[in-house]
Amino acid sequence: MTTILQTSIPYDPLARRPLPGVQPANMDNWLHCDDAFAAQMQRREELLAGCRADIMSMDPSALPAAQELLELVLSRVYPECTDHVIRPDRQKVPVDHSQPLDTLCRLVQEDFCILQKHGDEHVLTAAILCFPASWRLSEKFMRPLIDIHVPVDSYDANIARRVQRLFDGIQPGRPLWRFNALWYQDAELHQPRSANDRRDPQDRGTARFLRSERQTLLRLPKTEAVVFSIHTYVLAEDQLRKMENPA
User: Fold this and answer.
1) How far is 135 from 49, CA to CA, in rounded Å?
2) How far from 224 is each of 65, 183, 186, 191, CA to CA, in Å?
3) Helices (H), the chain
4) Residues 186-198 pLDDT 10s
5) What is the pTM of this model?
6) What are the residues whose beta carbons fall under 8 Å from the beta carbon of 52, sequence distance 6 or more?
7) How far apart are CA 147 and CA 17, in angstroms?
8) Using CA atoms, how far apart are residues 238 and 247, in angstroms rounded to an integer?
9) 150, pLDDT greater than 50
10) Which of 152, 137, 139, 119 is nearest to 52 (CA)?
11) pLDDT at 2
């Protein structure tokens, strides 16, 4: 197990919001960089080297969208980029437009899922998923939204329709975001789990770590794909108490 923790979360992860719980964001806060950047990026490198096939998938039809996403991330985070970038941890990363997911994996803390409209539904056509919260990319790849959320008990047909309408209405340059809160016994970021191996829900009374995902939805203007980005925060219980009860 690898322990990588943040010292704070820039929102209240325990605030209750009804599903789907989205709210407006803007392009200035679309992506985040926090105090766990160097450690999380090192863990991403380890996963990329050790289990690339488990954390990355792309249908050939998604290549233009993945390349558009790479260009957008570069323009927002590394605007002076040429053929390489220098990350905040001073690591040099070459930019390879022919391998957009590999490059994206090394640039920012966020995982990315690319969803494209197939008929009446959005389908997961490409993804970088270094830090899954109890799901497997291989089981969700090339599946529509309703199938992706099958293991989520609260994701019923009514919620599915609302989420599909939400995806249809996303506009370029106007991202939306939501968050969740999950309790875990350990702090490992890479937590793949099959849909057939349901995770027993943990509550605050027994778990040691709070894991919260800041999830952002953004439409790419050229390919019109929807990008679902996931920034993962993990706090120890004692650190969470400090946030709730500052001195």
Assistant:
1) 20
2) 8, 35, 38, 30
3) 37-50, 52-55, 63-77, 100-105, 137-140, 145-148, 157-169, 237-244
4) 999 999 998 777 6
5) 0.91
6) none
7) 23
8) 14
9) no
10) 137
11) 79
